[in-house]
Specification:
- The complex is a heterodimer of chains A (178) and B (756).
- Helices cover 29% and strands 12% of the residues of chain A.
- Chain A has 178 residues and is of the alpha+beta class.
- Chain A has a 5-stranded mixed sheet with strand order 2-1-5-3-4, covered by helices on one side.
- In chain A, strand 1 and strand 2 form a beta hairpin.
- Chain A is globular, with a radius of gyration of 19 Å.
- Classes of the chains: A alpha+beta (178), B alpha+beta (756).
């Protein structure tokens, strides 16, 4: 797709004879749906998700995403959404917490494990913990405590011990299926 | 309903239960404050407008039960526990219960004053559960009574021969009638003459059973809407740049570059309200950028060209404040307040066999709420509608009323689940800002504080210095205890009389008060312009660290097992009357102490390669103890095990309670290990998660072993911050055992590395 420019969709001519000009903008896939961003290419993904798409599960934590509240998966890798300008994301595939469950509503095993372990404080940073945990289990299906220690998230409510239990529960479920 | 209505029944606190027929044959039970000449409820309130009725129950014809949660849930679990209390009295099927947050219940009484529909509404202050226990059980009991009466008529069996179970009324012959099918009939019955008796405790089916957070599914799927997630079509996004000094002023500003940013609509100044006092700044001066979306507002803010003129607070620094404290405590100045003075501390000191003294420094703290301050405000000339992350919506209401002058019932405040509170959201400066901006802009405003502002414009927990001394007699008993504390009161500038400013800083009943014959507690006021406010487990957090560290030091001086020193101090199990009207049950305190000691293997405390530390405390009728095991490899401290025992009386939701205990423990450890706010030139130096680093997963223990004492039929107490005060002293005491380094200054990691 063309380099991102801040412009709108070109007007379609009256007759159907002339093919429409190529659409500008930044094309991304969010939770399996395609979107074209035609606003400021420097807008961070976080505000695009929250303000434009109104997908508010991904939370604002701070200017650099250090507490992990705004983690999303970009082409399967966890990144802080506030650090990603839309310009960098053309053609990328993004998964937010809203996209973790199956289309029929079946929860991701980690989502279910968080519920089963009641691994929730105020819940504000929970989406970020989930995204980081999904990534961890993809890399390490049977993580050691030391692997879980590497999660970048923080939590003021102190849900860490239950998050640890939830990750282990989800991993054990996977081992059982295997 | 009038106070004399024949079908009105009188309940405690002048509150009336009320039943109403909802739409489609629903039974609606509400609790309303008694108020003479109150007009009957308009019919449209009864169905889809369930919200506006009261703290209650609604059962529809399908048997689905809706229960309102009146207190904001900031992560304390009250949105689960409060409805559990009602649902159990109702014998509802929990699987068919949905919980709705109520928002603020307010109407106007005759003289225009607010009339709180649901009574108190407050969260994160440790009193939601006790208040609900006293007030909300009736709603469930009444609904069950009505349903039973309706079933009795339908079945032709006396009501007292029927029983209720999981949303069904069951007759002795086995016939069953569902609540859903009875709701319409029940809604048409008269209220009983006397309030129906609540259930006998042995019949509880939900209370005392583990129940998961009612919002869990919405949270893990990203569907839960916090205030920050609310949008309104016409709303402008407002971001602020605050003056770095609460008492500073705007010297110059060029708004043109900001206004040139695409999407920016307005740049506005926010001036503090008149009459502010140092120490409690309602609003620091600020400049707001209003834009069509968050990114444009932030980009506009980047372009603001402005200059602030510092106020007198620019002279302040946390280092100077600590010197101020030392000067007060080292000199012989009279205390600002003598909080308690039992026996004769001076005389006891003269005949001292042994006398010890130690000072403890604890830093300023921020609230660091995960969800930053924000507010959606829609203010018209005759109505205001707000979505607020608040711990105290009635306080938020007062702010809106003051700024708009609107009638009491024309201010609508919704409080969805809140992303952490810890006391920060008992103040509503951000609500004031949003209202002022919405009024001035003539458009709804979605105010967002960025993280830097959250750190720089908090109502901080004051730093403190505790200077403790104790006298020990020849029989190794602690016969005198003298606590001298210097801190800046959280109540300064809040209309509290000068002789009551100590009440936010120290408690007359705190340990070891009541256990030592000669006990004195003095408070010295520090002068600071840094805004202060309520903070999690305040003032317990700071006082417990000092007292429970000091007892450990005394034990060491006595060459005694610190558990034994504590048990000797507590003495035989007995009740001691407290100044606040409550009691200290030394037996219950001994019990939690012994429980954590046994669990962690205290008997081996001297032989253990690792260090064991212990601490206990009591607050508001609840008891807590921590035992912690630390390891040391090189200069690397590890927290190997954490055990916590709590006695909170009756437990409503054990799963929720364990979550609160583990959560508060980890929060307290994180705070003690890493956190401090410092100021220089009147400015807070921490502005992000790197400079105010909450503990990482690796720093924290892998589990918190929680022991919950069976509280029997004792009324429940609050527990959301019960486990805060003892974690840090237990950790510091364990660190001493493993390293011989006595940490008398927090944050612990920094001090430990300095000393070792």
């Amino acid at each position: 797709m063309a380099p991102a420019q801040a412009h709108g969709v070109p007007a379609v001519p009256d007759s159907g004879i002339v093919p429409a000009a190529a659409r500008g903008g930044i094309g991304i896939e969010v939770n399996g749906e395609h979107f074209v961003h035609t606003g400021d290419p420097q807008m961070p993904l976080l505000w695009y998700l929250r303000d434009v798409l109104q997908l508010t599960g991904t939370k604002y934590g701070g200017a650099h995403g250090e507490n992990g509240a705004d983690l999303v998966l970009v082409n399967g890798k966890p990144v802080s959404a506030i650090t990603q300008p839309m310009a960098k994301l053309d053609g990328k595939r993004i998964t937010t917490v809203e996209g973790l469950a199956a289309n029929d509503g079946t929860l991701h095993p980690l989502q279910q494990a968080f519920i089963d372990e009641d691994a929730i404080g105020c819940g504000y940073c929970t989406p970020g913990w989930l995204i980081a945990s999904v990534d961890l289990l993809k890399r390490k299906p049977q993580p050691e405590d030391a692997d879980i220690d590497q999660l970048p998230n923080t939590c003021r409510c102190g849900c860490q011990t239950r998050v640890r239990a939830a990750i282990k529960r989800a991993a054990a479920g996977k081992a059982e299926q295997a | 309903m009038s106070a004399h209505a024949p079908n009105g029944i009188r309940l405690s606190r002048r509150r009336f239960l009320q039943i109403l027929a909802g739409t489609a044959g629903a039974l609606v039970v509400g609790i309303r404050m008694a108020h003479a000449d109150e007009p009957p409820l308009p019919p449209e309130w009864l169905g889809n407008h369930f919200h506006e009725l009261g703290a209650y129950v609604r059962i529809d014809a399908e048997g689905d039960v809706l229960i309102g949660a009146r207190d904001p849930d900031t992560g304390t679990g009250v949105a689960t526990a409060l409805p559990m209390i009602i649902a159990d009295e109702l014998d509802a099927d929990w699987n068919r219960v949905s919980v709705v947050p109520l928002g603020l219940g307010v109407s106007a009484n005759d003289n225009g004053q607010p009339h709180w529909t649901y009574g108190r509404q407050r969260g994160g202050t440790g009193d939601s559960i006790p208040a609900a226990w006293a007030e909300l059980r009736q709603a469930g009991a009444l609904a069950r009574w009505l349903l039973t009466q309706a079933a009795a008529r339908r079945l032709g069996i006396a009501a007292d021969r029927l029983r209720c179970e999981a949303g069904t009324v069951i007759a002795p012959d086995g016939r069953r009638v569902t609540y859903g099918s009875l709701a319409d009939d029940a809604s048409k019955l008269d209220l009983p003459r006397q309030a129906p008796a609540p259930k006998a405790p042995e019949r509880y089916t939900l209370i005392g059973k583990p129940v998961g957070d009612v919002d869990a599914h919405a949270i893990v799927t990203g569907q839960a809407k916090y205030a920050i997630d609310h949008h309104e079509a016409e709303a402008l996004v407002a971001v602020l740049l605050h003056c770095p000094w609460p008492d500073g002023t705007l010297e110059s500003i060029d708004t043109a570059p900001a206004l040139a940013v695409k999407g920016v609509v307005k740049v506005m100044q926010l001036k503090p309200e008149a009459g502010q006092q140092p120490g409690h700044t309602v609003i620091a001066p600020a400049v707001a950028v209003l834009a069509k979306n968050t990114w444009a507002a932030l980009a506009g803010r980047e372009q603001l060209k402005l200059k602030w003129r510092p106020g007198a607070s620019a002279q302040e620094s946390s280092a100077a404040l600590e010197q101020q404290a030392s000067a007060l405590l080292d000199g012989d100045a009279a205390p600002t307040a003598r909080v308690r003075d039992d026996g004769d501390v001076d005389k006891a000191g003269k005949h001292a066999a042994r006398r010890y003294e130690a000072s403890y420094y604890q830093p300023w703290l921020a609230h660091a709420c995960p969800e930053p301050m924000n507010c959606l405000a829609h203010v018209d000339k005759d109505h205001a509608r707000l979505v607020v992350p608040s711990q105290a919506p009635q306080q938020a209401w007062a702010v809106v009323q003051r700024l708009t002058g609107l009638p009491a019932d024309k201010i609508e405040i919704r409080v969805p689940r809140v992303g952490g509170g810890y006391g920060r959201r008992l103040d509503h400066d951000y609500v004031a800002e949003a209202v002022m901006l919405a009024k001035a802009a003539g458009k709804p405003v979605r105010l967002l504080w960025t993280r830097e502002q959250d750190f720089a414009h908090d109502y901080y927990r004051s730093a403190s210095v505790h200077k403790l001394s104790a006298v020990i007699d020849r029989k190794r008993n602690i016969v005198a205890w003298n606590q001298r504390l210097a801190s800046a009161s959280a109540l300064s500038g809040r209309g509290v009389p000068a002789d009551r400013l100590w009440t936010s800083e120290v408690l007359p009943d705190q340990l070891p008060a009541g256990l030592v014959p000669n006990y004195r507690s003095d408070w010295y006021a520090l002068q600071s312009a840094l805004p202060r406010g309520p903070h999690r487990a305040m003032p317990q957090l700071a006082n417990a660290f000092a007292a429970e560290s000091f007892i450990d030091e005394l034990a060491h001086q006595l060459r005694e097992d610190p558990l034994v020193t504590r048990l000797r101090l507590l003495g035989a199990p007995r009740s001691i009357a407290l100044r606040n009207g409550g009691t200290l049950d030394t037996g219950r305190l001994r019990n939690v102490l012994q429980l954590v000691a046994d669990r962690i293997g205290w008997k081996n405390w001297l032989r253990s390669v690792n260090g064991l530390g212990i601490a206990c405390w009591h607050m508001d009728g609840a008891y807590v103890a921590h035992a912690i095991e630390t390891s040391l490899q090189g200069d690397k401290l590890g927290i190997e095990r954490v055990v916590c025992a709590v006695d909170v009386g009756r437990v409503i939701n054990p799963l929720g309670l364990e979550g609160q205990v583990a959560g508060a423990t980890l929060d307290a450890l994180s705070t003690a290990l890493n956190l401090a706010i410092t100021t220089k030139d009147g400015q807070v130096q921490q502005h992000d998660w790197k400079s105010y680093p909450l503990a990482s997963m690796a720093q924290l223990p892998n589990s918190v072993e929680t022991i919950v004492v069976d509280g029997g039929n004792r009324p429940p107490t609050g527990a959301s911050f019960l486990a805060m005060p003892t974690a840090a002293p237990a950790l510091a005491n364990a660190v001493f055992r493993v390293s011989a380094v006595r940490v008398r200054r927090l944050p612990l990691m920094k001090e430990f590395l300095r000393l070792s």
